[in-house]
Amino acid sequence: MSSSPYTFSDSETIDDTNSTISESDTIIQNQRQQISSTRKNRSHTIFFFRVDGDFAYCKICESNFANTNKRAYGYSRKGGNTTNLIAHLRDKYNITKNNYSEYLDEHEEPIAELANHPSTTCSPKRQELITRKVTAFIIKNVQPLFVLQNQAFQDLLLTCEPGYKIPCDKSIKQMLFLAYT
């Protein structure tokens, strides 16, 4: 026997010079054991969703909405399945389990832009002033409240004041009611 035998059990030793299991085989076996202890069949959605508590957010949507007041929809993780996440990727971006690697090759792995760019906020005084001006615009130009949901109008407001949070229809309705009473 050699000077440094590897012991695998009480009765079995393998010699360095005549080994049937090499060190690389041992490393591969260790890696397989580690992999088998974790889930083998991971969903492709892991590359496209950011997990925050009980919700998963699409990184692509977050990067698309980075400079708008829109937020990516939060998908609940309580059930533990990825069906809704897979459907979102398939329906919105035509990404499936068969072609997701092509998407990742063409684009870098999506990074949530909101996390990388701290959002600028509008001071409460400035927020109120702009909201009053938007309300006056709606009244004077007899605009429907739907104008607040118009992407071009939102882009205009956010270009002028990037930190401005566009109010919901309900808030504007209250201001319109106050303006006419």
Layout of helices and strands:
Elements lengths: L5 E2 L5 E2 L8 H15 L11 E4 L2 E4 H6 L9 E3 L6 H11 L6 H7 L6 H4 L7 H17 L10 H10 L8 H12 L1
Description:
The protein is mainly α. The chain folds into three domains: 6-37, no CATH class; 44-116, no CATH class; 124-180, no CATH class. Helices cover 45% and strands 8% of the residues. The chain contains eight helices and five strands. The strands form two sheets. A three-stranded antiparallel β-sheet has the order 3-4-5. Strands 1-2 form a two-stranded antiparallel sheet. A hairpin with a 2-residue loop joins strand 3 and strand 4 (55-58). The radius of gyration is 28 Å and the shape is elongated. Residues 6-19 and 112-118 have low confidence and may be disordered.
Concise synopsis of the structure shown:
Helix content is 45%, strand content 8%. It has 181 residues and is mainly α.
Low-confidence stretches: 6-19, 112-118
Provide the succession of SSEs: EEHEEHEHHHHHH
Distance between the termini: 101 Å
Tell me how many strands there are: 5
Summarize model confidence as the mean pLDDT: 75
Largest sheet: 3 strands, antiparallel
| Overall tally of domains | 3
Helix content: 40-55%
Class per helix and strand makeup: mainly alpha
Instruction: Give the strand line-up of the largest sheet.
Output: 3-4-5
Number of helices: 8
Rg computed from alpha carbons, rounded to a whole number of angstroms = 28 Å
Beta-strand proportion? 5-15%
Overall form: elongated
Domain BED-type: 48-92
Keywords: Metal-binding, Zinc, Zinc-finger
GO molecular function: DNA binding; zinc ion binding
Pfam families: zf-BED (PF02892)
